[in-house]
Design a protein that fits this description.
With 302 residues, this protein is of the alpha/beta class. 22% of the residues lie in helices and 20% in strands.
Length: 302
């Protein structure tokens, strides 16, 4: 196992589990709320089903459970169509799979360097049969902050960047300048590459690679104290990446060394088409204890 120079304790303190979300203060949330003028909501999440594009080893399967329709009529006092005089029935579903699929937020217990997570937590200390006892997705609060979209596809005059295209700091700064917005501490910074259009149109091509940020942009995000980031792609960094010997190094570095949260498979098309670059960003999720990710319902509100 390679030796790493310790990156802990984090700048947010020893034992911290919130990482970059510490940047979202109550004052930051107030600033975000004041951006709402029209009440228009842009849905940034994608529909999840068994055919959703997914990384190897991940899947989602949902089965309908309708047995109540058979059992309820047999209950005492029931009618031929259901339980009770009101003949109530219901259906539910059984779900199997991973939360690392669809539009989701990675927890800081997802990626490691060797056996170390964010803030130096070790796998052998936090792993349990049911998940992890630290850094689980239940530690992530609901998020309301200022959001900024960086439309790199528009900057280059293309509908979609190509797989393996590495977004540079120059790309980001030129796009922001053209859009007339600046990045501030505590922001949610979203990247539109156009790659997300393949989600439904060509799922196999979508998962075969992607454009994404390089390490220089990763450092740029950390320097500016961005609270969380994400893109209309499935792994955030470019695939293939800048260094073929270091797979997925951008999300790994941001998660593990800096505690910067990353969202994947965002639906940024509607924002880009509308030319909306600054907005109130909201994110909620189910708090499943010890999980490495959560399916999220992110939205942009103007």
């Amino acid at each position: 196992m390679p030796e790493f120079t310790p990156w802990w304790p984090s700048r947010y303190g020893e034992g911290d589990q919130l990482g970059s979300l510490n940047e979202i203060t109550p004052a930051k949330t107030v600033v975000a709320a004041r951006l709402v003028r029209q009440g228009q909501v842009f849905d940034l999440g994608r529909v999840l089903d068994a055919n959703a594009p997914h990384f190897e080893g991940r899947y989602w399967q949902q089965s309908l459970v309708s047995s109540a329709h058979i059992i309820n009529p047999r209950r005492p006092g029931s009618g031929p169509q259901g339980w009770g005089a009101n003949e109530i029935n219901w259906i539910t579903e059984l779900v199997t799979g991973t939360l690392q699929i669809g539009t989701h937020l990675d927890g800081l217990n997802h990626l490691q360097m060797g056996d170390r997570f964010y803030n130096g937590y070790r796998l052998q200390d936090i792993a349990e049969e049911w998940g992890t006892n630290k850094l689980g997705i239940e530690t992530v609060p609901p998020i309301i902050t200022r959001g900024v979209l960086v439309d790199v596809a528009r900057l280059h005059g293309v509908a979609r960047l190509s797989a393996g295209y590495v977004i540079s700091v120059e790309d980001v700064e030129q796009a922001l300048q053209a859009q007339g917005v600046e990045v501030e501490p505590g922001d949610a910074l979203l990247f539109h590459t156009g790659w997300g259009a393949l989600w439904d149109a060509d799922p196999a091509l979508y998962i075969s690679g992607e454009p994404g940020v390089g390490m220089a942009v990763g450092d740029w995000l950390v320097e500016r104290h961005v609270a969380l980031t994400g893109a209309d792609t499935w792994s955030f960094g470019a695939v293939p990446g800048e260094d073929p010997t270091r797979p997925f190094v951008v999300p790994q570095t941001l998660n593990v060394r800096h505690g910067l949260f990353i969202m994947e498979n965002l639906a940024t098309d509607s924002l880009a088409r509308a030319g909306v670059y600054e907005f109130m960003f909201t994110l909620t999720h189910a708090k499943t204890r010890g999980s490495t990710a959560a399916g999220i319902a992110p939205a942009a509100v103007i």
